[in-house]
Amino acid sequence: MKRYFLVSIMLLCIINISCIPYKDTVYLQNKSQATDSLQVIVEQQKPYRVQINDILNIRIKVTDQDNVQIFNPIGIGNLNASGAEQAYFDGFTVDLHGNIRIPELGEMNVLGYTTKEIEVLITNILLEDQFKETANIFVTVKLTGLRYTTYGEIGSGIQTIYQEQVNIFEAIANAGDISDVGDKKDVLIVRQYPEGQKIHHIDLTDVNVMNSPYYYIQPNDMIYVKPLRQKSWGTGTNALQNISSVATILSLVTTSILLFNRL
After folding, report:
1. Beta bridge partners of 138
2. Name one GO molecular function term (predicted).
């Protein structure tokens, strides 16, 4: 009887240790207060500043649109391309020196500028060299989609969202969500800066992540989701799966002992 009791205790310990706790699977938990409701004021995202390898979509409009046809090369790079690939051929890529090359206007340094600042810069150059104010120049500059990379316990690959502002949850949902064995409490964001790359850690299970300066992703971010220890153990994600696994093992052990005793 004592033997069965010890086996039962061991099984319960295995099940308890190998299960993934419920609190580790739930997003946006209120960990700092005892109340059910919590108002979180999301930090305003700072304007994004252009980096190397960004692709800009630049469109120039004037009263006589034929006069700016050369500035708007739509669809001439690759007629068979579509979507993000077409944006690559039609857009203006920021080179290693932070420059873009625009027809007639030549090279222009845009590294560290916001898209609004680039719009003003191009407008001023056109007014100085190409057009008069009566031409009613209207310049728009946008990033050709927000491109980022996901890997680990999440849908892996290069992702693109055609929005100017994307938070971490939208980015994860677009990649297919985090798997059951992904660590939501310590998600890594690798972000590019002029001086190099930095790694930032965020806890998606804490509602205060919405106050984090890394709540909104930026172009060229890399999002890495680490696996939980339960994955390396090869156990189930909940008690029922673990009981099934343990029962299978016990059944094999019992069968082996019975066969051995018969010999």
Report:
1. 61
2. polysaccharide transmembrane transporter activity
